[in-house]
């Protein structure tokens, strides 16, 4: 299955639509947050769909002992939030890994345009399928490959330069802690520490000669 994104920018589409552009000021806003800030926590009631404009953040939840567990990383163009389709079982947090700029859509408006506008509906369906594909591919990697290979795949997925809300270039992989990497590869922080000891001794296991990414 092809997990690559189809080129479509929701906000640009709305601003060029005579049907929507006059009402965007009341239904769409911008929010900037700092690295380490939470966009929301599980206990909060949300009536907003969020779009990542700049920066990167993680989606996760809490283990029984209260430890944060990361299960998704978002980058510019990604959509997230509680769309109220889970019958009250929405139990995640969103935490900024860099300075982040978000575009906030009124939830009623967002859900309506996904249904009413054919182009948006097609984009939304493709986007959801790509997110499924991304999750399924990561799960398959966890159950079928050794830890080093999982880390290598994660690195290839997130060794990407983006801009944060302050205009600073950020490598997404560099924002990860060893705990984040452990969560995303289905192992433990101790196992990841051992893997990175090997990588420190032999960087070619992970990095190409042109890479300047810092080891976590």
From TrEMBL:
Domain of life the protein comes from: Bacteria
Residue ranges of domain Cyclic nucleotide-binding in the record: 24-107
PROSITE patterns linked: CNMP_BINDING_3
InterPro entries from the UniProt entry: cNMP-bd_dom, cNMP-bd_dom_sf, RmlC-like_jellyroll
Pfam family, one: cNMP_binding
Protein name (database record): Crp/Fnr family transcriptional regulator
Protein source organism: Marivirga aurantiaca
